[in-house]
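Replying to the earlier thread about multi-chain prediction with a worked example.

Input:
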Amino acid sequence: MQDKELGDYIVTVEKIGKTFPNGVCALRNFSTRIRRSEVVVIIGPSGSGKSTFLRCLNGLEEIDSGSIVIDGTPLDENKKNRLEIRKEVGMVFQSFNLFPHKTVLANITLAPGLVRKKSKDEARKMALDLLIKVNIPEKADSYPFQLSGGQQQRVAIARALAMHPKVMMFDEATSALDPEMIGEVLDVMKNLAREGMTMIVVTHEMGFAREVSDRVIFMEDGCIVEEGTAAHFFSNPQKERTKLFLSQIL
Amino acid sequence: MSNAMSQSYPKIWLRLKRSPVMDVTKFLMVVAILIWVMARGTQQLGYNWQWYQVPKYIFQFQDGEFTSGPLMFGLAVTFRITAWGLLLSMTIGLVTTLLRLSNSFLARIVARGYLELIRNTPLLVQIFFLYFVLAPIFGFSRFFAGVLALSLFEGAYVSEIFRAGIVSIHKGQWEASHSLGLSIFDTYRCIILPQAIRRILPPLTSQAISLIKDSALVSTIAIYDLTMEGRVVIAETFLTFEIWFTVAFMYLIITITLSMVVNTLENRFRIQT
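Result:
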């Protein structure tokens, strides 16, 4: 996206490595820095380490080496730091992962109440505002199983936003959706990007990458193969591997 | 095909089939058959049925007021043992489960050791051990020794039921909760346990009923529970069949009360996914 003011670096990832117990190496000396308000789209073949990278950023996976610093807080063994980072980094999953035993409203207000110590009324008011933002204010008292996939994913986005995160991560947020529902979720994500949210998005939606991303990272085998602005990346890829990948998916 | 089958049954019949009334009816039918068989058998034996003798061991009517008979005292004791046993075994079970699922190696070993030790030795031996060996050392009462032995025994099984329920909750629920910054404690309290409880309740009910029946074993350390009182009455009166039937019926009252409580709970936790 052009003419957007990018801020200082909020995410600093330095030479992180991650090998799973089964011997699969997901990340090799992976480094990148992300600015405030930047929208970074990560693409790549399956198994290239995109999701693992996101999951390392909020400590869902432990890194073996390297360092991660988010808004000045290092992600290390210190549990307090880890919780602090999780508060500031919102995550949206491919499979929604809403809490099935709670209403939409309760899904959204749970963490602000418990973690941010918001009062019930305050959390409720904010949740209703967020539901308006994701275009489903009428579903506040529904249970997740009563919603379509697209609606569930929008609730999941609202739930993550309710923590007022500084960074939002999307892990193939539209991959599990029926085609006609992808649009409604992408619209919410695009609005978020326009409002200046810092976003790291793993996706196969090239239209989204072209339209709102400031930078595209192409990963393979746990490394960055190529990165650049969306316009540059799609129209003029440098590496053969990138060209091959783009020709396969476009 | 299956649809057509279910439609051919009247709805009321299906509902009746599932209701506790049906269970009670079945139980009573079985009891009736048993009584009939007994009656046939004892006719040949010449057993002298004296049901009229039984009520005074349940209630006595003296000087214009009711007083409880020995069987009622026994029932009250069994009820107390059961109530404390349920509470304590659930607590022990939950703690053991959390230890087994924790990241600490030591905690996992302790929980595993307890589980294997308890599951692989007879309850009777455990009751004796607690009463004759540990009770004098720590100075706890006969009643407490009985309840503790029972709770430790059932707690081991309960912990496996809890564990199965907890690990059956999808990994995504943990991840969603963690990603929102919830602590482990809040994750268990607000996300995992409320969902697991629905899957845990049915096998837990079986275990609770086992506990009620196993509570009869505390009579071996001379706690005057329902079984013990029944035995004493039989020793005095030789009303073997009458008293045992009555005792069985009184155990049934406890188990049915429990089933009803669980039914209410299950309805409360029933949420579709």
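The longest strand of chain A covers residues 9-19.

Feel free to reuse this layout for your own posts.
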